[in-house]
Amino acid sequence: MQILAKSIDDLKTERKGVSPPLPPLFRLLPMLFYLTIAASIGLNGIFFLRLSQEVQRKEAAIKRKSDYDAALKTAQTERRDLEGEAKKASDILSWVDTTRPLQPLVVEIARSVAPDSTMVELRMERDEDSPNQIKLSMRLNSDSTRQLDNTLEKISSQRYRTYSPQQTVNGQEIDYKATLLWQDASRPQPPEPAAK
């Protein structure tokens, strides 16, 4: 059994409007709804764009910080190396300042040798721990000990004082060993005892 559409339409009764029509302002509601959806999509797009920019800035800042840290470590290492080199240089400088040049002393010793005498051996050793002390070892061929006295006078003229001298004479050969101490001219020296 089929019901015709016309007969169903006939069953409807005509009604009067139960409620009045919407005011014209409410017709804007769907447009405002779509506008808010479009605005939220736009704001979300702006938010995600800014978020990606901030992530890039953060990564760049982290990279800059790691570069600065690496440069700082390199600079600290270089500074530590330079300070080590400066310490070595200052140690060498202080050692050189405490040592006296030996060339004037050697020249005076060589000039003190008389024509009738010969110097067989001259050895000077300087200790690292006490550079102001020089261990002197000389071997002379001479007829008398006057040559040795003459050489010792020249050594004292260079402001060196002998300490614990040892002298051995074998015929014409004189062996002399002593420690030479530098006498600072700025410090007063004790008077030497007068000969009796």
Structure description:
The model has no long low-confidence stretch (mean pLDDT 83). A hairpin with a 2-residue loop joins strand 3 and strand 4 (173-182). This protein has 4 helices and 4 strands; from the N terminus they run H-H-H-E-E-H-E-E. Helix content is 51%, strand content 20%. With 196 residues, the protein is of the alpha+beta class. Helix 3 packs antiparallel against helix 4 (146-157). It has 2 domains: 30-98; 103-182, Alpha-Beta Plaits (2-Layer Sandwich), CATH 3.30.70.60. It has a 4-stranded antiparallel β-sheet, with helices on one face.
Compile the SSE list and pairings.
Layout: H1 5-11, H2 29-98, H3 103-112, E1 118-126, E2 133-141, H4 146-157, E3 160-170, E4 173-182
Antiparallel strand pairs: 1-2, 2-4, 3-4
Helix pairs in contact: 3-4
Features:
single chain; 196 residues; alpha+beta; 2 domains; 4-stranded antiparallel β-sheet
Computed Rg: 54 Å
Question: How many structural domains are formed by the residues?
Answer: 2
**Estimated helix fraction:** 40-55%
Q: N-to-C terminal Cα separation, in Å?
A: 167 Å
How do the helices and strands follow one another from N- to C-terminus?
HHHEEHEE
Content-based structural category: alpha+beta
What is the makeup of the main sheet? 4 strands, antiparallel
CATH architecture of the largest domain: 2-Layer Sandwich
Q: Give the averaged pLDDT, no decimals.
A: 83
**Count of beta strands:** 4
Strand content: 15-25%
CATH topology of the largest domain: Alpha-Beta Plaits
- Sequence stretches where pLDDT stays below 50 over 5 or more residues: none
What is the topology, as strand order, of the major beta sheet? 1-2-4-3
CATH class of the largest domain reads: Alpha Beta
DSSP helical segment count: 4
CATH superfamily of the largest domain: Ribosomal protein S6/Translation elongation factor EF1B
Gross morphology is rod-shaped
